[in-house]
C-alpha cells in the first residue's frame, strides 16, 4: 500500500505542478503585455509635456494681457471720477491733465492725488474757492508730504482725514492728530501760515478755531516756501517709479480706448480656456504615464517571481518523475500529505503575489 499511496501523491503533485507552470506562463505573458503598454506610455510623455508647456505659456501671456487691461481700466476710472465733477469734457481733460502733472512732478500715486482733489473740490467750491486754488492746494499738500518723508500709505491716511475736516468745515482732534502723525510737514506749514507755534495751533484746534477757510488760507500762503523746499529734495527711485506708473497707465488707457483691447481680451480668455481644457486632458494622460513608468520596477520583480515559480515547479516535477520511476535520487518526505499541503500553499502564495503586482500595474 505504500507504493499506491506514493503513486497517488506523485499524480497529485504532477497535476498541481503542471497547472502551476501553465498559470505562471499565462501571467508572464500578461506582464509582458503590460510592459509594452508602459513603454508606449513613456514614449508619449514628451508630447504631453509639450502640450502642457504650451498651455502654461498661454496662461502667463493672458495674465500679462489682463494686467495691462486692468491698469487701463483703473486709469479710465480715475478720468471718469474727475469728469464727474467737471463742467465739461474739456474742463475734465484740463483738470485731469493738471492732476497727472502733480503726480508726475511730485512722484506720488495718481489715485491718491485724484482722491484728495475730489474731497477738496466738492467742499472748497462751496466756500468760493477757484479751480486753480484747489489744484494749487492739492499740489502743495502732495509736495509737503514728499518734503516730510511721508509714505504713500501715510499720505493717503492723512489726506483722507484732511478732506473730512474740510468737508466738516472745521479741523477737529481726530483729523488734527492724523495730520500730525502721518504728515507732520503739513502741520508745520499750517502753523507757519497762521503765525503760530505747534502748541498754539493745537490749542486753537481745541478751541474750535481751525475752520476750513483758515486752514486753506494758511496752506496757500506757504506755496512759495513749499516749492523751494521741494526743489531741494533729491529725486528718489520710488518717485521716479510712481511717475512711470502714472505716465504708462495713462498711455495704456488711451490705447485701450482707441483699440478696444478689452473686447479683444475676451477672445483671448476664451481661447485660453479651451487650451487649458485640452492641456488638462493631456496632463491626466501624462500622470497615468508617470505612474506606469514608476511601476516598471514592479514589472521586473514580477517577472523574477514568475521565474522562481517555474524553477521550483520544474524541480518538483523532476523529483516526482524520479519517484514514479523507482525512487532513485528522490528526496524522501516523512509526511507525504503534509508535504503536498505545504507545496500547494507555497504555489498559492506565489500566485497571489504575482496577481497583486499585476493589479498595482
Secondary structure: helix percent: over 70%
The major beta sheet can be summarized as: none
Structural class designation:
mainly alpha
User: Strand portion, in percent?
Assistant: under 5%
Question: In terms of per-residue confidence, which ranges show pLDDT below 50 for 5 or more consecutive residues?
Answer: 1-18, 326-334
What is the mean pLDDT?
Answer: 75
Multimeric organization: single chain
SSE ordering: HHHHHHHHHHHHHHH
Alpha-carbon distance between the two ends: 50 Å
* CA-atom Rg in angstroms: 43 Å
In total, the number of strands is 0
Secondary structure tally, helices: 15
Global geometry: elongated
Q: Quick gist of this model?
A:
With 361 residues, the chain is mainly α.
Question: What does this 3D model show about the protein?
Answer:
It is a single chain. The protein has 361 residues and is mainly alpha-helical. The two termini are 50 Å apart. It is 86% helix and 0% strand. Mean pLDDT is 75; it is low at 1-18 and 326-334.
Task: Draw up the topology in text.
Elements: H1 2-43, H2 45-84, H3 89-106, H4 110-124, H5 131-147, H6 152-168, H7 173-182, H8 184-194, H9 198-206, H10 212-220, H11 223-232, H12 237-259, H13 261-294, H14 296-325, H15 336-360
Amino acid at each position: 500500500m505504500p507504493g499506491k499511496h506514493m503513486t497517488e501523491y506523485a499524480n497529485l503533485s504532477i497535476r498541481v505542478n503542471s497547472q502551476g507552470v501553465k498559470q505562471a506562463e499565462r501571467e508572464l505573458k500578461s506582464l509582458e503585455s503590460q510592459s509594452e503598454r508602459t513603454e508606449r506610455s513613456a514614449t508619449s510623455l514628451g508630447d504631453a509635456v509639450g502640450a502642457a508647456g504650451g498651455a502654461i505659456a498661454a496662461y502667463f501671456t493672458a495674465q500679462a494681457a489682463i494686467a495691462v487691461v486692468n491698469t487701463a481700466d483703473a486709469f479710465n476710472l480715475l478720468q471718469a471720477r474727475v469728469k464727474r465733477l467737471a463742467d465739461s469734457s474739456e474742463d475734465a481733460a484740463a483738470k485731469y491733465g493738471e492732476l497727472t502733472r502733480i503726480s508726475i512732478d511730485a512722484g506720488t500715486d495718481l489715485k491718491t492725488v485724484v482722491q484728495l482733489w475730489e474731497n477738496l473740490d466738492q467742499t472748497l467750491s462751496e466756500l468760493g474757492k477757484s479751480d486753480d486754488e484747489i489744484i494749487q492746494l492739492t499740489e502743495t499738500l502732495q509736495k509737503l508730504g514728499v518734503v516730510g518723508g511721508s509714505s504713500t500709505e501715510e499720505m493717503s491716511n492723512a489726506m483722507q482725514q484732511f478732506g473730512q475736516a474740510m468737508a466738516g468745515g472745521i479741523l477737529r482732534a481726530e483729523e488734527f492728530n492724523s495730520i500730525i502723525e502721518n504728515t507732520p510737514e503739513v502741520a508745520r506749514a499750517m502753523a507757519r501760515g497762521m503765525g503760530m507755534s505747534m502748541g498754539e495751533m493745537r490749542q486753537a484746534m481745541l478751541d474750535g478755531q481751525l475752520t476750513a477757510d483758515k486752514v486753506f488760507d494758511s496752506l496757500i500762503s506757504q506755496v512759495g516756501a513749499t516749492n523751494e523746499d521741494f526743489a531741494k529734495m533729491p529725486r528718489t527711485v520710488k518717485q521716479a517709479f510712481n511717475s512711470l506708473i502714472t505716465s504708462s497707465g495713462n498711455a495704456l488707457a488711451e490705447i485701450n480706448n482707441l483699440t478696444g483691447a478689452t473686447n479683444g481680451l475676451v477672445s483671448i480668455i476664451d481661447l485660453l480656456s479651451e487650451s487649458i481644457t485640452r492641456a488638462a486632458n493631456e496632463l491626466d494622460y501624462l500622470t497615468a504615464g508617470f505612474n506606469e513608468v514608476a511601476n516598471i520596477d514592479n514589472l521586473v520583480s514580477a517577472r523574477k517571481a514568475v521565474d522562481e515559480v517555474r524553477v521550483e515547479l520544474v524541480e518538483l516535477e523532476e523529483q516526482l518523475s524520479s519517484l514514479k520511476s523507482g525512487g532513485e535520487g528522490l528526496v524522501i518526505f516523512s509526511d507525504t500529505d503534509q508535504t503536498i499541503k505545504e507545496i500547494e500553499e507555497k504555489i498559492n502564495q506565489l500566485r497571489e503575489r504575482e496577481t497583486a503586482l499585476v493589479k498595482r500595474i
